[in-house]
Amino acid sequence: xxxxxxxxxxxxxxxxxTYDVGGPLRDVIDCHCHRCRxxxxxxxAASSARVExxxxxxxEGQLTWFFPVEDxxxxxxxxxxxxxxxxxxxxxxxxxxxxxxxxxxxxxxTVEAWWxxxxxxxxxxxxxxxxxxx
Length: 134
Description:
The chain is mainly beta and 134 residues long. 5% of the residues lie in helices and 39% in strands. The chain contains 1 helix and 10 strands. It has one helix at 34-40; strands at residues 8-11, 18-21, 28-31, 44-50, 54-57, 63-69, 72-77, 83-88, 94-98, 110-114. Strand 1 and strand 2 (18-21) form a beta hairpin. The radius of gyration is 14 Å and the shape is globular. The relative contact order is 0.25. The mean pLDDT is 91.
């Protein structure tokens, strides 16, 4: 991490996995693709940061990565099940952070919704720019 004082921090529900972000976070993008919906139980509301700015603490080895396809993976806490991160090979220098795991106040706002073509029928969309895919 570049900074001694993190700009943001977050954790899973049980606290076994924590993280600090030492650089800027991108505003939140909601992803409605079928994989993100199933990973989070709704849609993924995610920010992102440069990988080099994120310091993950996982003393007990609870952080688990699942790769449903070769080029993208989801990370969660094995103990409490919290959805924490997403990473893709198309952007290897960036780590997506599930926004709900960040300690408030975040200072972030939702700016876009992706993969709205795969949004579930119950979802009422906010007024943000929408993309049929990413």
